[in-house]
Amino acid sequence: MVEQYALDSVFHALADPTRRAMLGSLAAGERNIGQLAQPFAMSFAAASKHVKVLEGAGLVRRQVRGREHFCRIEARPLAAADEWLRDFEGFWSDQLDGLEALIREENQAGARHPEGETP
Asked: In terms of C-beta density within 10 A (0-12 exposed, 13-18 middle, 19 or more buried), how is residue 10 classed?
């Protein structure tokens, strides 16, 4: 079972589109804070706050080298979130299968009874 408190912080971090974009950027490789901030035209301080949320969720690891802060993605918390989401895969699959069956029935009924004709 996945730790609930860990998932709460992961989903909180992923709820923000800027942090999701930063994480996507980090999936391509290590970036410094300035590189993470650049696409959003935000300050180092603002970007650093986003990185702190990602760090708190365990999604990012920051390393300071001289005056620069470099970040890299940590995949383990994403795997835990994926595991939790997969628990619902069967539910959604069943729901979609039911919807598909209903649509087929309606399409077949419509083909048997063209518009304007009564069954």
From this structure: buried
How far apart are the C-alpha atoms of 51 and 19, rounded to whole Å?
8
Q: What is the mean pLDDT of residues 93-99?
A: 80
- Spatial neighbors of 107 by CB under 8 A, at least 6 apart, are none
Contact between 32 and 70 under an 8 Å Cβ cutoff? The reply is yes
Statement: 4-78 belongs to CATH 1.10.10.10 = yes
List Cβ<8 Å contacts ≥24 apart for 21-25: 22/47, 22/50, 22/51, 22/54, 22/60, 23/54, 23/59, 23/60, 23/73
| Token pair listed for 14 | 């992923």
Whether residue 24 is predicted with pLDDT greater than 70 in this model: the reply is yes
Q: Going edge to edge, which strands form the sheet with 68-73?
A: 31-32, 68-73, 60-65
Residue 71, sorted as left (phi over 0), alpha (psi -120 to 50) or beta, turns out to be beta
- Whole-model pTM: value is 0.72
- Amino acid (one-letter) located at 110: G
